[in-house]
Design a protein that fits this description.
Largest sheet: 7 strands, mixed
Number of helices: 8
Structural class: alpha/beta
CATH topology: Rossmann fold
Distance between the termini: 47 Å
CATH class: Alpha Beta
Radius of gyration: 17 Å
CATH superfamily: Vaccinia Virus protein VP39
CATH architecture: 3-Layer(aba) Sandwich
Bound molecules: S-adenosylmethionine
Length: 222
């Protein structure tokens, strides 16, 4: 992959956003990794430890629960959900991301596929016991953030759980950032969309304390 230049990266993303093509650039990030998942600059290459802790408490071994990973990137979180017994669908709008996953996990039980959160297969509607979102809303601008949130909620079956991991910011700050972290008002949109908040954590990342995060768990109770 070419050297990551944060200034050029932000200019490129802003350019797509100004053309109202906010998802047009993701494929280029993964295809520039040239088949090497290690070269995707935002990939941690390990599952989110907060997700793993939640799965420890809520495994699906023997229970045929269905989970979906939104904007799955290079697949670490999707694989963790499968390890804890979920039947996992993992999708990304970037076909080059899905190709990396399929190459990386040759014997996987996860169903990796190319799909768009804004136009997903209709059989997914209300179809999942566990919906997992990590860092997708924050890379989308304006109205697309709300549409993404509502689409995520619409994937959730009755009594299903939705987990959200994202960067956070104080309201009124960083409003031109790329990615744009979520403020409390935005993430509370999951509650306004009808879900019950089961837990909420605001924390600083051990590796980069200058980048605060949210980790939250919601449930569709009715
Ligand atoms: C910042 S990356 C995060 C990837 C992964 N979740 C992680 O935490 O490493 C955001 C991901 O969302 C995907 N994405 C963005 N918009 C999408 C959409 N409308 N439908 C599906 N995937 C989307 C991008 O291709 C990208 O892989």
């Amino acid at each position: 992959m070419k050297e990551f230049d944060p200034v050029k990266y932000r200019e490129m993303v802003r350019d797509y956003q100004e053309r109202d093509d906010p998802t047009g650039w993701f494929d280029g990030i993964y295809s520039s990794a040239e088949g090497d998942h290690n070269a995707v600059f935002w990939a941690d290459l390990a599952p989110n430890p907060y997700l793993v802790d939640w799965l420890e408490e809520h495994p699906a071994i023997g229970s045929k629960k269905k989970a979906i990973a939104i904007g799955c990137g290079v697949g670490d979180d999707a694989e963790a959900m499968a390890t804890y017994g979920y039947e996992v669908t993992a999708f990304d709008i970037a076909s080059s991301a899905i190709a990396l996953c399929q190459n990386r996990y040759k014997d996987t039980n996860v169903d990796y596929l190319v799909a768009d959160l804004f136009n997903y297969p209709e059989e997914w509607f209300l179809g999942f016991d566990l919906v997992y979102e990590c860092n997708t809303i924050q890379v989308l601008p304006g109205k697309y953030r709300i549409q993404a949130r509502d689409a995520m909620v619409s994937l959730l079956a009755g009594q299903g759980d939705l987990l959200v991991s994202c960067r956070s910011r104080l309201t009124g700050e960083q409003e031109d950032d790329i990615p744009l972290p979520l403020d409390r008002q935005e993430i509370d949109g999951f509650i306004r969309a009808g879900l019950t908040e089961k837990s909420f954590l605001a924390y600083d990342d051990d590796q980069d304390p200058s980048v605060p995060h949210y980790w939250s768990w919601y449930k569709r109770e009715s």
